[in-house]
Amino acid sequence: MKGKKVILGVTGSIAAYKAAIFVRLLIKAGAEVKVIMTSAATEFITPLTLATLSKNPVSIDFFDSSNGDWDSHVELGLWADVMVIAPATANTMAKMANGIACNLLLTTYLSARCPVFVAAAMDLDMYQHPSTLHNIEILQSYGNQFIEASSGELASGLIGQGRMEEPELILAKLQSFFDGKKKLIGKSVLVTAGPTYEPIDPVRFIGNHSSGKMGYAIAEELAKQGAKVSLVSGPTSLKASHPNIETILVQSAQEMYDASTQVFENTDVAIMSAAVADYTPAIQLDKKMKRKSKELHIELVATKDIAAELGARKKPKQLLIGFALETNNEEENARKKILSKNLDFIVLNSLQDAGAGFGKDTNKITIIDKNNKKEIFELKSKTEVAYDIIQKMLSME
Ligand code: CTP
């Protein structure tokens, strides 16, 4: 964190007291810190405490009434290498998600061009309310890094999720973000995502339920951390927005194979999250098939295994990461795939886990690497899962 310019936004939650510890940790790690508080936050911790610890005046209002100076949110936003809002209340998150700009912290957030981390803190029922969950999704879709609250005893006396993550862990996330960013700048990564559609005739196809959300989240996360991403995507309703992502749209397994093998030549890492059809109709009719007999048999032939092909072509410095969605004998099947496709590691999803699988915004993964090291992760948002996969990828280099 040495020399990194950090804006810390503090909002009105009891967890605001942790801001003092967090500022101290940031300063000790060599960061420059400027604190912006909402007026509600000043009820929980004094600006004097945070000004003393950060060695900088604390900003609260648009205007400093003592000397008539204007606090420029645009300048603050441009100054920062990173903005961290910790604690972020449900109220502030709702305003951030909706572009409301009624205090200096929010106007600075809207002007900031740097990465933004949001560490939530609130009561457990507020945290689980559909509007809060929806706002978290919106904030993540804008590219903010969301730091989930942890579970434990809350100020209300209730026990559950809502405690702001510990300052040490937030700092660790920032540090790995900056380390990762350094490692990812200049790296090119191929990501496959979504389903494939195997045409039967001009009207019908054989497809699957993959939404592409996991692959798109990985692509966005890589791009945010500075990588150049080629996203080879089957048909989905998603759109990648980051300028570092080049999206190559394909339909069939053969088209995905052609695009991926071409791109792989010049990439450092390939992450194969697409749900590629294993079989395709042997013949694709050029006219619509008519309903005739009572039974219909369509002959299918195996598609090419893209991951296995890239595994065979892999050069010593390239990394290849696969996915496996299994319903039974999960780990055994995943390990077989590491060998048969020459993967460096595999991300295993089980359809037996609630919250994991097609179309969901969350996922629960286990990563198994070629050295047989196994890591089991909690159920998390797909953005956070993407982050974990990238951390593992960086650790394998
Ligand atoms: N994969 C691929 N090309 C294929 C099939 C799969 O690139 N034709 C990739 C997937 O993107 C995934 C990994 O291989 O990263 C495992 O996919 P999966 O469908 O689980 O494995 P299969 O090899 O198809 O085995 P099976 O369907 O029998 O479990």
How do the strands line up in the largest sheet? 14-13-10-15-18-19-21-22
Net shape: elongated
Within CATH, the superfamily of the largest domain carries the name CoaB-like
Structural class: alpha/beta
CATH architecture of the largest domain: 3-Layer(aba) Sandwich
Distance between the termini: 22 Å
Point out poorly predicted stretches: none
CATH fold assignment of the largest domain = Rossmann fold
SS element count, helices: 13
Rg calculated over all Cα atoms: 24 Å
Kindly state the mean pLDDT as a whole number? Answer: 92
Assembly type of the shown chains? single chain
CATH class of the largest domain: Alpha Beta
Beta-strand percentage?
Answer: 15-25%
Overall number of strands: 23
Number of domains: 2
Proportion of residues in helical segments = 25-40%
- Are any ligands bound, and if so which? cytidine-5'-triphosphate
Biggest pleated sheet: 8 strands, mixed
Task: Provide an overview of this structure.
- The structure is a single chain.
- Helix 1 packs parallel to helix 2 (47-54) and helix 9 crosses helix 13 (382-396).
- Strand 21 (365-369) and strand 22 (374-376) form a beta hairpin.
- It contains 13 helices and 23 strands.
- It has two domains: 5-181, 3-Layer(aba) Sandwich (Rossmann fold), CATH 3.40.50.1950; 185-396, CoaB-like (Rossmann fold, 3-Layer(aba) Sandwich).
- It is α/β, with parallel strands linked by helices.
- The protein is 35% helix and 24% strand.
- The model has no long low-confidence stretch (mean pLDDT 92).
- The strands form seven sheets. An eight-stranded mixed beta sheet has the order 14-13-10-15-18-19-21-22, sandwiched between helices. Strands 2-1-5-6-7 form a five-stranded parallel beta sheet, sandwiched between helices.
- Residues 192, 253, 272, 274, 276, 278, 303, 305-307, 322-325, 337, 341 line the site of cytidine-5'-triphosphate (CTP).
